[in-house]
Amino acid sequence: MKEEKEKLPVDETKQTGEVTRRDFLVGAGTVVVGGAIGAGLLSSCKGGETVTTTVTSTKTVPTTVTAAATTITNTVTSTVGGTGAITVTSTKTVTDPGTGGDVLPAFEPEETNLKVGCSDGRALSAVDVKHGKIIRIRPHHWDWKYTVDELKPGKMVARGKTFNFTMKSLQSHYFACYKKRVYSPNRIMYPLKRVDWEPGGGDVSRYNPQNRAKSKFKRVSWDYALNTVVSEIQRMNSQYTPWAILTCQDIHGETKQIHGGFNGHGCGNRLLRQNFGGYTQQMRNPDSWEGWYWGAKHFWGDGWMGQCKQVGPLYSDIARNTEMNILWGHDPCTQTTCYFGAFPGLLYYWFQDCGVFLLHISPDLNFTGQPFNRFGKGKWIPVIANTDDALNLAVAYVWFTENTFDQAYCETHTVGWEQYRDYVLGNAAGDPIGPKTPEWASEICGVAPWTIKALAREWASKATCTSHREGGPMRGPYAAEHARFEAYNMGLQGLGKPGHHSYATPHNSPRWTKRFTSSAVNFSGGFRFAGWPGAEDDQIRQHISRCMVHVAILNGTPDHPVSWYGTSLLAAPVEDQFERYYYPIPADQGGSIIHMIWTDSPCNTGCWNHGFLTIHAWRQPQIETVVGQHIWLENDMLLCDIILPVCTKFENEDMRGVNDEFSFSFLVYEKPAIPHVGETMSDMQIVAEMADILGTKAEFMNNRLTVAEWLEYGFSVSGAQDLMTFEQWKDKQYVTAPAADDWQEDKAGLIDFYNDPTSDPIRLPSGKLEFYSARLAEHFPDDVERNPVARYVVGGPGGSGVGADIVGWTHDESLYGEKCQTYPLVIQNNHPRWRFHVQFDDVSWFREIDTGKMTGYDGYQYESIWLNPEDAEPRGIKHKDICKVYNDRGIVLVIAYITQKQMVGSVRVDHGARIDPIATGEDGMWIDRGGGINLITPTNPISKNCTGHTVSGYLVEVAKLEPNEMEEWRQKYPAAFARDYDPAYGPLFSGWVEKEEA
Fold it and tell me: Is the confidence at residue 25, as pLDDT, over 70?
């Protein structure tokens, strides 16, 4: 052991010429003391003086590593600025006692495993592990096991500039911190049961549904948990029908393949299909793409969730031919990083280097707009949330009146453009608005008329691309019309010609010389991406759009079923939107109301519409059992009766093929990095154990009963089997394929349609872009919220009913109805910068960042609400005040982030914060402390016949929360304030689970 030296007073220590480790760190500029960096060292050194210290120590560290006697010398030199140059050199020499085998912990060997990023991520990361613990998660270096000559990295060339493909993976900031999630205190370590729930249905006093999200949980054994779930499934089938079970199992898991169906979810569906013949499917709507899906599909046909066809090297064509790129409500440095890591940010820097002007149109100067709005290469046009329709119409007005649109293109490539022109100019029959001038639009959207005219003229004079992926104005009331207006304007300027695209950042990758797949080992059932099953699939003949689940539970009965249009399944064809579906289906078809819910994607309260209503619906007496299968105790898990703990992908052995990463196509062998945490199992293992109870495990596992068998089978059909042996692949852990040399010459976007619309038609009845949709006119002739030609829709009072039975306006969520008199602010619920939807809210590193969380006077970390000073000042709100954002659906507590980066009249709260309910219906009060803003989003879909959720661009009011009101709540709801809480992690697992007896 190191010998203890007699400690000297600080001043005496410095007089001896010694510099302590803390002094050195301060001098190196790495520690902030009292607000001054380096103050401690500067006070003891004169300008230009050099201090050199040598510290020699001998330390014996128990270790299993054997090695020869080792001497390790580290020398670090740092210069601290000041009146003179001060250089501090610290040399530390560590020598083992000569017996070998002893090294400092910092130098003990580590094992490196490869994992693909979580939640649909593509980037490959290196996970360094020591003593069974994750030390760090860092970018993977592609030349770890291969030479550069073997890898053959590609490049992109545009306008005389070269972008070399990166030789390390572009890991997201989310995955870099994932060890904080793995070791989160909110991990579910063992099976749980709600303390006042008993299986078997019957008397409501036995299963107490009213106490979901109120009662605590207690620990149970795996045997009890698995047998209880299987017994409840069997009871549902015998007492009701297979369709009495609603499965909430879809996507955004941990990119597990063998262990979790499609991207980590869906194993339960497979079990129910094989053993019981069916279930009710919660159908995943295109939750971030609603406007594209329900609107733009009727203009340019099928594309990625309704966006324009993303074909070929679009980003290469933009770099070479686009002059202006409009990021409309788009924040690629936030929205796409969990999928593509740092690549979107690098891509837009590359665009700017190539001379592409970046124009940001959004209510907030977002995380892409801030750094890119620089050096005259970018600009921000702030707009009031959900008023983009007026801005688009006014741009078209300038084009039509100044004749700066591509009329020749419109006459050969589109149908109905004249009807749109008539509407814009105020000549359409029955139009109460008149001409859609910049002056008219300015009063609505807050953009000055001269700015609108300048925008229109720049757009018309330059090769212009609009960029999106998800989010933005596509998630608000009447989003289908906004999507069509933007698509219309792209059509007016010759959509498809070089440089003129509607681009889903950063969709499409280079054409690889080889592609790899791991989809053969997915344990997915029901939510199957091959074939896109809808209600025509006999085994899931009864389904509910995810944004309709709560209203279906509350309102659907055999005598009065709830109905809606379209399955809303992510990539269903356009024709599906004309089909009307019902819940429950007739009894003679096996229909049943729901009596059991099984979720492995528990975020309906955090990401979908009107989360407070979800809590109310899941508490209904007919819901006898709720089973949750998840990694962390959060959001919908609080509504469960039985909880099955899932391990992270770091604890699994798996594989993954990726073909839309930027640098290479690859197939990775994912070794288990760490032992299982607690008593957790993978999704596949959990459901396989249920199948074993039922005696059908072999069938469930397709007679491959071990992970090793699945790995070998998956590799044999992956595409890599032609390049190496299975053993070689496992040894190297990854195999890559480069881009083809001529990939940039591939055709991009709609260029074939642009060159000849008859040889490459749009998949719509006319084969052309349809400003006028004859099919909308045929199927919905009386729909004033989605006309055959898109119209400006405000909505207003009068809506009643649900789904396709809504009578009157669907929404009164604009600044021109009655509701705005009480709730005068329009809120945008963005995709969060410091979370991926509802994931990562308990990462302590992210909770230190003010644009995400800030600490209130009570020590609680609240979700930030962005307010412009002009909105904050009349409300008496100052920076870091605890506030309540509210409407007629409830109250969510937040903290004020006062900034000029937010448009006046709009406020911003990122969606996905973990809910922390204070009141859930008691005395009619609905209050959340966690910042779960989707708890108060509208219930109704985006419009009467468009079954998408409305989760942004709605009305709220914001007020400072006075301490006396907070104190009243503390007295009224003591249990909510007594739960365990840690500012570094938020609400804790221990606050919801009964402590075990000693």
Answer: no
